[in-house]
DNA sequence: TTCTCCGTAATCAAGTTTGACTAATGCCGG
DNA sequence: CCGGCATTAGTCAAACTTGATTACGGAGAA
């Protein structure tokens, strides 16, 4: 398992949308997305990912003089060509991979409009097929042997996974429909939707206030 | 977020079912459950959890002479009283916590029969309530402001989460019904279902062969 | 002016996760 | 009897994650 990682995609995508961004900017964007809630987009992970990807040549680091607004000297990053390749590869993988890892899928949805509309649809259809194949495999693998119910309550675990796989497939089909129906603005279709905070814009979802129902 | 951890519950529960177990046994049980697929129950994590919990007094470690069947000297573990407390506390928390963390829930389902039937039902009902509260909070928090659709395709992420929360609630309701309908054997109801490998029994789901649909 | 608090930006140490690796023993064919 | 090879059991370094902490400058209070 352990397919593509959510932070890498998130960080790469956030930097890319800015053209050039420093860690704090990325951190703010991801908070704006709510990604600190539904993925491991915590400060440490973000800065780590930035450095790591810089070391791997996916990002180019520019050391910048102390910022105009206080704080330690900051580093700005830019996505390299290799980074762009990695970005699209991660994005496509994440859309197709059936991992039950919602953070990865969520991240990919956030960037899905970076693809051409038909490609997005194709990938999502592949995703549905993947889920169906997985479902067939699992039910066959875990049920028969000596007839069902040999598993006792353990079977409920499989039940849970299958149920939520079905829900995932259903949601995906809905999304495909909406996209085919013309929703949203995809790559090459004019003014893209920008999901990042403009310089100086306030973050309405800034941390501190916890959404109701969240546990600790 | 970051509620209860799946490995701790899994390891504690596995050791408890054996009465006394060494790491490899636990590792095999969890593989039998498929837990290495749907949770981070990899060897390193298991041995780490064992040592950690021994240090914390939840497990008692017995150093044993080299095993009868080859390999390095092994350590057997036993759950202490404090460990039992932790176990039930983790189990209950995991059943109720609405984290969208399926590994935690799956682990808890595996041990749910360690609770009395009515308590299991009560906890699951609390779980449903929790999901509903979360849902209400999220939809309210992320939708209005300046009317919906301000989010563009980003709204699809919330859509996804809500959709799968609904699926989770539905599954939980189904389970409650089955349990109330008399399914499975719970604590204090006679011969319990044993979900571990007997000494020397072969593991039909031993690793190597990947289930169809799994990615890498 | 000086002190303190706040927002910005990033680092750090402690803990966790990973999967490849080691090591010891028994089994089987030649 | 001896060399591989599978099995059993566990270790380890490298990578990742986390939350607390540091460091800096500016705004306002005293």
TrEMBL record, chains A, B:
- InterPro entries associated with the record: Metal_resp_DNA-bind_regulator, Tscrpt_reg_PadR_N, WH-like_DNA-bd_sf, WH_DNA-bd_sf
Q: Which residues form the Transcription regulator PadR N-terminal domain?
A: 11-86
- From what superkingdom does this record's organism come? Bacteria
Q: What is this protein called?
A: PadR family transcriptional regulator
Q: Which organism is it from?
A: Streptomyces polyasparticus
């Amino acid at each position: 398992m352990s397919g593509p990682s959510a932070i890498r995609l998130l960080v790469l995508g956030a930097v890319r949308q800015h053209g050039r961004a420093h860690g704090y900017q990325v951190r703010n964007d991801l908070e704006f997305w709510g990604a600190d809630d539904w993925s491991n987009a915590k400060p440490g992970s973000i800065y780590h990912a930035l450095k790591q990807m810089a070391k791997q040549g996916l990002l180019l680091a520019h050391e910048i003089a102390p910022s105009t607004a206080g704080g330690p000297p900051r580093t700005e990053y830019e996505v390299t060509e290799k980074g762009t390749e990695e970005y699209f590869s991660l994005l496509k993988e994440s859309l197709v991979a059936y991992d039950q890892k919602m953070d990865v899928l969520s991240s990919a949805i956030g960037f899905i409009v970076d693809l051409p509309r038909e490609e997005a649809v194709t990938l999502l259809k592949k995703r549905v097929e993947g889920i169906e194949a997985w479902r067939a495999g699992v039910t066959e693998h875990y049920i028969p042997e000596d007839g069902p119910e040999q598993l006792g309550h353990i079977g409920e675990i499989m039940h849970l996974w299958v149920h939520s796989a079905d829900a995932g497939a259903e949601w995906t089909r809905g999304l495909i429909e909406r996209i085919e129906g013309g929703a949203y603005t995809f790559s090459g279709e004019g003014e893209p939707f920008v999901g990042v905070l403009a310089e100086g814009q306030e973050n309405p979802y800034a941390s501190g206030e916890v959404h109701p129902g969240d546990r600790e």
